[in-house]
Amino acid sequence: MQAIIRLAGGSGSMDNKFASLAKDEYMGFLIGQNLMLIPAYLLLAVAGALLVQPLASFWTKRSKFRAAWAVALRALLLTGIIDGYCTLRLVDTRPYFLHDNAFSNSYYGMLDVIPNAIRPQSFFQLFHVLPVLFLIGVGIWHIQRHGKRGWITAGALSLIVLGIFGYQEIGNLRKPTIESAHDAPNIIIIGSDSLRADQLGVGGNHPTRKDGLAAAGVSPVIDRLAEKSTRFENCYTPIASTLESGTSLMTSEYPQSHGLRQMYPNRQTVEKTQKSTIPLADVLKKKGYSTAAIGDWCAGYYHVMPLGFDDISVSSFDSFKIYMSQAVVMAHFEIPLYFDNPLGYKIFPQLGAFAEFVTPEVVTKRVEDRLADPAIHRKPFFWHVFYSCTHLPYRSQEPYCSMFGDPNYRGANQTGVDFDINTFIGGTDLESKWKALPPEEVSQIRSLYDGCTRQFDTCVGRILASLKANGLADNTIVIITADHGDDLYEPGVTLGHGLTFNGGLQANHIPMIVYVPGEPAKVIPESVRLIDVAPTIADLAGADKPKIWQGQSFAGWLHGHSPEAWRPFYGETGFPFIQFTVPGVERPKLPPMDELTKIDPDYNYQFVLKDQYLDRLIQAKQRCLRTQHWKIVCTPTSSGKRHFSLFNLTDDPFGEHELTEQRPEVLAPMQRALERWMDEKKESSIQEIFPAGEPS
Known about the structure:
Elements: H1 2-8, H2 17-25, H3 27-35, H4 38-61, H5 68-93, H6 102-111, H7 119-146, H8 148-165, E1 186-192, H9 220-226, E2 230-232, E3 235-236, H10 242-251, H11 255-258, H12 267-276, H13 280-285, E4 290-295, H14 301-304, E5 311-313, H15 320-330, H16 334-339, H17 342-347, H18 360-370, H19 372-377, E6 381-387, H20 421-426, H21 430-435, H22 439-469, E7 476-481, E8 487-488, E9 495-496, E10 509-510, E11 513-515, E12 522-524, E13 528-529, H23 533-541, H24 555-559, E14 569-572, H25 593-596, E15 597-600, E16 606-609, H26 614-619, E17 623-626, E18 630-636, E19 642-648, H27 664-680, H28 686-689
Parallel strand pairs: 1-6, 1-7, 2-12, 3-13, 4-5, 4-6
Antiparallel strand pairs: 2-11, 3-10, 7-11, 8-9, 14-17, 15-16, 17-18, 18-19
């Protein structure tokens, strides 16, 4: 569900078809969620009264107006000042909480008067030292005024305020500088949803705008890391959909083998996958690794499929009740304002997983905070850090939002892709609508994507800097990758991912940059697959690889111990939000998303695919096989047959010229190999497909 919210613009408000469902069938739940907020308001009232009382008393003693109405008015004014101060403090401590609107911009404007050179010291004094001094003063006042009862009041107030202001900050003051003592390498995978390999600077993306901050390009940090790493020019995911691709990454199995074929699996499917797979995290834990998945709403699939991690710190995902609960809390401004902290998470657990709060900046801060622990405890770690930066609708904060776009652009896609949520979940005609966009809108959308890529690059830079600061850089393997790419109006496609194998393979083509300390840098053009990553990491960590894993390690390529060779890419499409047109093919008809799915109250109110569509959806999938030079696509027809299209990617990278009739000697062996993989779940190597060598 979070994916749908963020596609629509991400306010968290229920203003689409699901809002009607919530009001019609879950009104009792919504009322109950509102009633659960009463204790929070009571707690705030008590804390506010204890804080305001000394100030109001001091003011009243020095005023000639001492009537009850005057005291009440002063208390109200002082409460407003404290509330405004707490909101202002968020600009420094939690900027993700404030939205980009006139109300929020006024707070940013207040702090702009402080020169940049003295901002860190000023903010520390204003937002850290001042609250402590104020709290001490209030405590002393209560003790002097009420004696023994004042001590109790001061103690209670201290606990409340320290909880609200974040007592964990005390622990974050430590700055470990020790070196890692263990021999096993730390391993961290850093990815961004929908990040395309060819849209990085090192992948060949160099936007025309080069003024100001844009002069550094879309990925300066990642580009520098790639210069000392092994970079694979051709890495592919077997399915361009996050849940399924993420499961393939961690289990080294194709979707048709691990069982997750679309993004709304039911309980039975998830439980079956958990029982039949062996995740990489489980393998590494046997070697003494601590494991964690850290991310925002795009990493929410780890709540559906934990995949063996000890610690999962991500946003919640696809539970309709969580969606409604978060919408309720967001409607009460004071609750997230004062309870977006460790104390608040104990009272309102949903706050810690809010998509609105857990932004890329928050994820990065969480990673920075965690990196102190491995340095101190000297235990190897395996983490997957996964961001939403480059996911549709390509919204990012300034300066990234406008960094690469036309400064004179004022259209509907200025801050993100203009998106109609009701059309997306209830319609099937988006292909024609998206194709109708004029060139200037396409250019703006691409510039938004570039800005999002730069935002991810900044996050990577902070993590790399933290690794170095904590003495971990020389013993940490860093992998930059993604779950899938995105179509960006290349020939034959519009927007999205996992929807079609029309055009090129940019939606399945992902970065694979592997930094292994001490290994020489190199660029490898031969292909690898996302399912090859787990076996590679196992080899690098000295762990045994489960026999059921389908991927092949490329650790030997990193060390230079084995020759590189092209590996076949086998893939399938995901959930059919759009069924793209295939020339000459009448495809099986499927209804829109809101008819394909339902809410399962017996499965944590998850969105799941309706039982009657389980087989139909899989039967309607496109499948693909790519070798070094060729791509073959299988498209099921409405009559139950299979239509095959053949393309030469060397001469025709976007698949604009179909060669089925012209090259039957290529079509026949590739069709046999693809059908063998589809029907028997058996992969054929390129040498097996073309024993005499692959024709060009």
